[in-house]
Amino acid sequence: MLPLLILVSVISFGLIQVMPGDYLTRARMNPQITQETFSQMMANYGLDKPFYVQYWLWLKQIVTKRDFGTSFETMRPVYWTLFMGDRLMWTIVISSSTMLLTWLISIPLGIYSATHQYKTSDHTLTFFGFLGLSIPNFFFALVVLWLLVAVFKVGNYGLGVGGLFDNRFINAPWSLAKIRNVLWHIWPAWLVIGTSGMAGLLRYMRGSLLDTLSLQYVQTARAKGLSERIVVYKHAVRNAINPLVSMLGMNLPTLVSGSLVTAIVLNLPTVERAFWSALQMQDTYVIMGGLLFFSLFLLLGNLLADILLAWVDPRIRYN
Amino acid sequence: MKKAALMLVVMLFVLSASAVLMAQGYETQPADAKIISLGEEGTAYENQELGVQGGTMYVGSFTDPKKWNYVTSHETSTTQYTNLMLKGLFDTNPITGAIEPELAKGWDVSDDNLVLTIHLREGLNWSDGTPFTADDVVFSFNDLYYNEDVETDTRDILLLPDDTYPVVEKVDDYTVMITLSMTFRPILNSIGAPILPKHALAQYVHKLNPDVPAGTFNSCWGLDTDPAELVGMGPFIVESYAPDQHVTLTRNPYYYHYDANGTQLPYVDKYVVLTVASQDVLLLKFRNGELDALGIRATDVPILKREEAVKNMTVLVDPDVAEYGTSWIGINQDIGLAEGTHENMRTLFRTRDFRAAMSHLVDKQSIIDTLYNGLAVPQWSPVSYLSPFYAGRDYYGGPVTETNAVVFEYSLDKAAELLDGIGIIDRDGDGWRDYEDGARVEIELNTNAGNTVREGVCLIVSDRASKVGLKLNFVPVDFNTLVNKLFASTGEMIVLGLTGGNEPNNGSNVYDSCGGLHFWHYSACDEPTETEKRIDELLDAGVGTLDNDVAFEAYKEYQITLADDDLGLVYTVNPAFTYAYFNKLGNANIASPIASPSGNNGLTMDLVFLK
């Protein structure tokens, strides 16, 4: 895993260098900053050195001091800048709840779709699934907010849109009413991110189950006189779900990164949003820190998927 | 027993001491408080009204602050908060734009204009109750702004043209003396930089506290600092901050502005800025009643105008009041100079009549109508429209007259005539104009990709140019690539903009022939044209006097020379100021670009109140 992470870091560092300009390019257009100050800033940030020296210094810092660098913008450590406040906590809360809901809804729907293959209900489900997949998230999120504001006029009931809380709860201590208010602010995220992920899962589940249902052991089960319910749920689904377990592992990084576009429109604090703003400002070490963090979770996710797979499917054994 | 009594005395002492420290605000209005003459006729504030204290106000902002440290900050996402927390010796009046005393109550100027004696307001406290004195002023300049160990761009603003800095000395607790090596008019503006609390910050300055390593100050007052440690003299102090969510500011109990009724400002108790990354969502939140005021785009105006009466809001649109800053087409007169290429083009770009022809090709009305919904103002001068030194204003010397107003109206005929006059004509009959040697004139026009307005300007200009047979190829490029092109002098023609303000001298880094941003003609530093020499002289004349009327005359000629003879930059249009607020806000009509030099959402926050 470590060599892979180092490879990732080399490639990312190279890519950042290929991006035109650097963190200070914007400052150069400020009529009030003189060339001397500008050069001094370049030196302070280490941006005047060749990129391989910058990379080497950065790597050395990590190994010797376990210091992942400092954000140019906040002058604070990289991971503090990325996770500032409760960003990581909120990202995990929002992503995991969305993921849970998506899975809880799409797996049964996929099973239903497979068992009702080519019926009107199957087509309808597929249609809506793909509709959710094909509507761009930022657009759908904006439409939801617009509907709430301009059509349902939620402002008249004292309800806000976007963000985590209504204004009156911003600085209030936690209470039942505040939790209810968070739910009111998170459901658009569930709707928008959920609908975009549903189609894929639903079709996977459907396809996988259909494959399994045509296998001989299912026919054998039916021939034994088992009820259709037991055939489907106990025999077919258990095997059909394996490919989805691998997918679950690959979803792990999204738990900590969150969904960027939706988070921007719905104004939710997520790690990826901080990462995105670092990308925009070319805050090199925050970008590097973010990339490493996300890659680490991708690797962990794959590992977890393999372990899970071995657990759900006794046939898989790693030697 | 004796011990217990002693303990009791000590405890009482500690209690009373902490009671003094926790005292909230002045017992009586300080004698040197600054009185804001709201509603008084004949003053700048005659259209404002006296308000009442209380309530919370909500506005929105695109980005989070990056730190709480004004000195090391470079961007408005931070200064929009620090400017509410801190005050300088001088400030700009939010209505007239004139300089007026802030922490200073007055100043004397020596006969030779070189020594300023500044009298500070007495009896004022920082937000934590510590008295404000001349030590804070001296600390801010000598230990922060002038300290090489501190990273700050304020140092550049304070630099005098002869490469010295104003010398700041303490005379007594409430008097500061500032000595200059030369007369420099914008000095009142630049020494108006925020004053910082010595008692709270001296511990982070390596020079004063050798225990901390060099450079410690640059990272102090970061976002992880407990807001309770932040101290200021401004109307608000930070109470809490949640990333991507909000910044909550609360009133400074020791703020020294009072209205004529003796009510302490600011009027609102709390000021909450919600972080919303999308302008569309900001607009929705405003329409939903979650924000009390909002800076809007020209395209938002029609939507809000429809709801204006029903929702009891005001959509403030003044098509004649332009935002600060400049938008222009830069024609690179040094193109190919370093590489020894582009000789034809360089000669052409160095011809004044070609640049005049380009000015005639800018169809400003189409740009205003199609790209700004009609809400923009044609621009011709490097000085911002609202500056008292803008040649079109009558603030000082009187506006430019009909005869010397510089207007290059949109005219294909005049452009064609000018191009014919300099021998740029179609020689091979293919419909495009050619150089004398028969090569086609083909110019690359760049702007930063993603800026739809600038892209629109490029499309309109290249379309109009094609109508007179001038071939402009529009190529949008990444912003940073564009900036690199500017500094390397490799761009041919570039559409871009620069920030601006009231002080024309802030543009000297751009328009002076040796300025670091004189990117359309860097070689002018060694061999300036006659016109550029004159511009340098006029810029010097504008700062070499303390008489604003004399300065105005210099700047008037500067603007006309630049726009008429030099034409280094061909100006396009500037967006008009647009703003919207709910009518429950009092004094919100003060909103203008002047009232928001630092991006405070267009409102002078200490005067706004909730009806």
Rg result of chain A: 25 Å
Outline of chain A, from the CA principal axes? globular
Q: What's the average pLDDT of chain B?
A: 88
Largest interface, chains and sizes: A-B, 57 and 56 residues
Determine the strand fraction of chain B and express it as a percent band.
15-25%
Helix content of chain B: 25-40%
Structural class of chain A: mainly alpha
Please tell me the overall pLDDT of chain A. 87
N/C terminus separation of chain B: 59 Å
Query: In one word, what is the shape of chain B?
Result: globular
List the helices and strands and how they pair.
The complex is a heterodimer of chains A (319) and B (611).
Chain A (H helix, E strand, L loop, with lengths): L1 H17 L6 H4 L6 H11 L5 H15 L12 H6 L3 H29 L4 H15 L2 H15 L24 H38 L2 H8 L4 H13 L1 H9 L1 H6 L2 H7 L4 H11 L2 H29 L7
Chain B lengths: L1 H21 L11 E3 L19 E6 L14 H10 L4 E3 L6 E3 L2 E6 L5 E6 L13 H12 L8 H5 L8 E6 L2 E5 L7 H4 L7 H4 L34 E7 L3 E6 L5 E3 L10 E6 L3 H9 L5 E3 L5 H7 L5 E10 L3 E6 L11 H7 L2 H10 L2 H8 L4 E3 L33 H10 L20 E7 L3 H16 L3 E7 L1 H10 L4 E6 L9 H4 L18 H14 L4 H19 L2 E3 L1 E10 L2 E2 L22 E2 L1
Parallel strand pairs in B: 1-11, 2-12, 17-18, 17-19
Antiparallel strand pairs in B: 3-4, 5-6, 6-8, 7-8, 9-10, 10-12, 13-21, 14-21, 15-19, 15-20, 16-21, 22-23
Primary descriptors:
heterodimer, A: 319 residues, mainly alpha, 16 helices, B: 611 residues, alpha+beta, four-stranded mixed β-sheet, 17 helices, 19% strand
Describe the structure.
The complex is a heterodimer of chains A (319) and B (611). Chain A is mainly alpha-helical and 319 residues long. Chain A is built from 16 helices and no strands. The longest helix of chain A has 38 residues. The relative contact order of chain A is 0.14. The model of chain A has no long low-confidence stretch (mean pLDDT 87). The longest helix of chain B is centred in the first third of the chain and has 21 residues. In chain B, helix 10 runs antiparallel to helix 12 and helix 16 runs antiparallel to helix 17. Chain B is α+β, with helices and mostly antiparallel strands and 611 residues long. Chain B is globular, with a radius of gyration of 27 Å. In chain B, strands 18-17-19-15-20 form a 5-stranded mixed beta sheet. In chain B, strand 17, helix 13 and strand 18 form a beta-alpha-beta unit. Chains A and B meet through helix 2, helix 3, helix 8, helix 14 and helix 15 of A and helix 4, strand 9, strand 12, helix 7 and helix 14 of B.
